[in-house]
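[job 4417] fold queue: 2 targets
>>> target A
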Amino acid sequence: MRIVVAPDKFKGSLPATQAAAAIAAGLRSGLRPAGACPEVITVPVADGGERTVDAAVAAGFERVPVTAAGPAGDLVRASYARRRRGRAAAGARRAGTRQPRRIRRARRRGAA
């Protein structure tokens, strides 16, 4: 038997990675006494909001730190996730609407 646990974050309490780990641990401990030994796979997900980059990194993407313009034009530290081959996977994590130049270029090329 294979069980896939793919939760989003539990806002205000757990990021998706910790939620997936806790659910998987509960399944394993609850099913073991019943004689079942399922393969439990965790795949944290995100809905495109905050922590999307964290979910992508947990799935094997690389975190790329950048400096981006915040809503007032001030510079803020942010990051995006990309596959090892250089394709952008998720937008920068920051307050504001401007995306880092690297992501805009990747989107224009159809890589994101």
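>>> target B
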Amino acid sequence: MRRAARDGKKLRLELWVHLGFTRQKNTREMNIVKQKTQGRPRRSSAGVNLRAIGQRIKELRAQRTQKDFAQLMGVSQAQLSKYELGQSAPPLGFLTGLAKDAGKSVDWILTGKG
């Protein structure tokens, strides 16, 4: 019984070594983090103030609850909250629907002017 367990342990160790895993300590080469490829940015880098946009969205929501307003706009309450807090940029479709509903321009929602 002991021999079988020892042979199994040896086999696992040989498999690890074969696959390139070793028991050596961390080295500088092991700790190098791969550079992430450029993808779609999570936050706007074009100088758009998402918090200000969120404040204007909240202003247009007026006395309605986030839940009711989100249903009206076709988004979830959590997503509307992210827009209002400036954690996420609202898409163009949301902005045009909001502008139409509130009687404001998309420019005003984005910049506060116009």
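[job 4417] complete. Note on B: Residues 50-111 form a domain with the 434 Repressor (Amino-terminal Domain) fold (CATH 1.10.260.40).
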